Amino acid sequence: MSATETLTVTLPDGKALELPAGATGADAAAAIGPGLARAALAVEVGNGAIEGRGEGEGVREVRDLARPLPDGARIGILTSRSEGSEPLALIRHDTAHVLAAAVMELYPGVKISIGPAIENGFYYDFEFPPDVSVTEADFPKIEERMRAHVKAAETFVREDISAAEARARFVEERQDYKVELIDDLVVAAREGGGAPLETVSLYTNGPFTDLCRGPHAPSTKTIGAFKLQSVAGAYWRGDSARQMLTRIYGTAFFTKAELEEHLERLEQARARDHRKLGRELELFQFSDLSPGAPFWKPAGMAVWNALTELWREQNRVRGYREVKTPILYDVELFKQSGHWDTYRENMYFTEVEERPMGLKPMNCPAHIQIYKDRRHSHRDLPVRYSEAGLVHRHEPSGVLHGLLRVRHITQDDAHIFCTEEQVQEEVVQCLRFGFYIYELFGFEPRLELSTRPEKRIGSEAMWDRAEGALEGALRAEGLDYELNPGDGAFYGPKIDLHMKDSIGRSWQLGTVQLDYSMPERFELAYTGADNAEHRPVMIHRALLGSFERFIGILIEHYAGELPLWLAPLQAIVLPVSERFSEYGATVCETLRGHGLRVELDDRGESIGRKIRDAELRKAPYMLVVGEREAGDGTVSVRRRGAGDNGGTVTLDEIAERLLADAVRRSA
RNA sequence: GCCGACGUAGCUCAGCUGGUAGAGCACUUCACUCGUAAUGAAGGGGUCCCCGGUUCGAGUCCGGGCGUCGGCUCCA
């Protein structure tokens, strides 16, 4: 055979496979084996680089099995058992098309927009006719229709047609969103400076055709199990000025068992929802009378105070001095700080004796007042003020979410006023402080460096120095970080600290921001060694983010089972009957005398009942006392969730153990 | 703020097409005095989110408001 009649591809194991010219991914799979041919979903194509490195490495694309393979490509056949998220993403995207197909059939006149796979499933956005509203109650009907498409094992057929032809087709079908997408593709190709857009791809399964880049599995039959999950509003193209579409969320898996396992996980995540646990454990409550503002109950306050102790202790150790500043100010302050111009919409205002006043949305202008109350020498710097600062922000009603998004926010705030030379070292110390705290909870930090945005103040030289200082700090600590070019604040670059919790969710907690704007606006100064006035740099720093949010995250991270040092109820004394209440009271008082949070359950209930209730309250230690213990001054120890295997120890021993645990702050 | 759903006892929820409310848990009382995840019995408890409308009659239907939930946008 001559070269033009064959093509060669390289398989993942490095072996070359020779195929007839024009062979497809499906042909390759068939050439490898009939089992693979049946299991194949798509083909991964990487160009060049037969040896697996060099040119082309990293350029890879997942393609339909039916597309011809390029000569010399490295390929891998994708099946449901392939590693990574791609196989699932593929069938989820397939399922999105099936959803759209079903919806088109059930709701004539519906306009379709886009339907991608997302992290745990997929969605499709629709514009329903004005008189139609779709709710979760309609899901069974839609799912039934979808099942028919899956059962029919419809082939996904790709056609590449000219943009003009596709446009005409969607104009004809009155699919305005598809027309807009095509127009934008054409414009993007033109503005990208490359070749003009020649064709767009359409995918058809059964009666349904969609504008789609692909890829898709060969047919709908690989969708093993799917479920529609929720319906929500979503702006067309994520733009709040544009049409609100109806988004239907769903998920899909290769097998029913996997789907059920996933739904089970969702159920478990709901069980650790901090709003549910907050109510059950009586940590906090919300009231219609003050939306977005938690009421801390005694148990929640115990957690708050334990966290505050950590915060206060560590700030002191690290050279911060705690301050406390008002929450209500003459609006002049916010005009000077700039918040009036940029943030007024989200602030709370009132009038006191005809004087317009506002609640602070940030603590920095307040700390600046303290800094300005005296003159500073370069010898004084850095000046570090910390405050559990209460700020109010009028968050839009739709975004409030338990403790995680509130209007009444207690930030673990700090501001450092320092010289430019000190910036890097101060940032290093902030990062170390953050890591110290996160490690206590087993959070794994991830860092992001955000640099100069388009709209900014200050000279290029200033930004060079500021970004250099942050980068220098990250490098000096040997830390990995992600770069977010252009994502900094207008007044300076920042490092954000993100964490992953026990179930893999990511949260942004801390932030370290350089600020060259506030010192300017408030004309901050220090006297240098040269006896001249200089501007200090200001570092804004929060590590927990806010006490409210951090506690919310902790509750979910620990599923309510807080470590002893944070637990509102550290131990509960359980007399086996009321006859031993007196001894129980002695035990309880002794432990309380050591500063531990202990209660006595002297209700006339059975010991089984008391243990059950104590477990539900998630007390780390249950101390059972009865005739034996009262006789020899001991307690029978039961650990939360561990059953009766803690042994029997003397009162002194248990006190010592609990105290050591609390002081160590062990997780 | 936007879209949608929801709002019934402290909690979780039931209440069909309009006829003045119900369960379990929790709570109270009594009995039991118990050894490692629910002892039994009796009892109390409701402006059915708020305002207005339709109706002989509204928890139920309609309109408005507030709040919550799921998303979207936002988080300087």
Characterise the protein shown here.
There is one protein chain. With 667 residues, the protein is α+β, with helices and mostly antiparallel strands. It contains 20 helices and 33 strands. It has an eight-stranded mixed beta sheet with strand order 16-20-21-28-25-24-22-23. Strands 6, 7, 8, 12 and 13 form a five-stranded antiparallel beta sheet that branches. The structure holds one RNA strand of 76 nucleotides.
Q: What is the number of E strands?
A: 33
Average of pLDDT: 91
Shape: globular
Radius of gyration: 31 Å
- Strand proportion, as a percent range, falls in 25-35%
Q: What assembly state would you assign to the polypeptide chains in this entry?
A: single chain
Q: How many strands, which pairing sense, and closed or not: the largest β-sheet?
A: 8 strands, mixed
Structural class: alpha+beta
Helix content: 25-40%
Q: What is the rounded distance between the termini?
A: 69 Å
Q: Provide a count of the helices.
A: 20
Sequence of strands across the biggest β-sheet: 16-20-21-28-25-24-22-23
Which regions have little confidence, pLDDT < 50, spanning 5+ residues?
49-56
Short description:
The chain is α+β, with helices and mostly antiparallel strands.
Spell out the key features of this protein.
667 residues; alpha+beta; 8-stranded mixed β-sheet; globular; RNA-binding
Q: How would you summarize the topology of this molecule?
A:
Elements (H helix, E strand, L loop, with lengths): L5 E5 L5 E5 L4 H8 L1 H6 L2 E5 L13 E4 L10 E5 L7 H21 L4 E2 L4 E2 L2 E7 L11 H13 L5 E6 H10 L3 H16 L7 E7 L2 E4 L13 E11 L8 E10 L2 H16 L2 H7 L3 E2 L9 E2 L1 H20 L3 E2 L5 E3 H7 L1 H5 L5 E4 L2 E5 L4 H9 L10 E10 L15 E11 L4 H19 L2 E7 L9 H17 L5 E3 L9 E7 L5 E10 L2 H4 L4 E2 L5 E2 L2 E10 H11 L13 E5 L5 H13 L4 E3 L6 H10 L4 E5 L1 H6 L1 E6 L8 E3 H14 L3
Parallel strand pairs: 16-20, 22-23, 29-30, 29-31
Antiparallel strand pairs: 1-2, 3-4, 3-5, 6-8, 7-8, 8-13, 9-10, 10-11, 12-13, 14-15, 17-19, 18-19, 20-21, 21-28, 22-24, 24-25, 25-28, 26-27, 31-32, 32-33
Helix pairs in contact: 3-4, 5-6, 8-16, 13-14
The structure holds one RNA strand of 76 nucleotides.
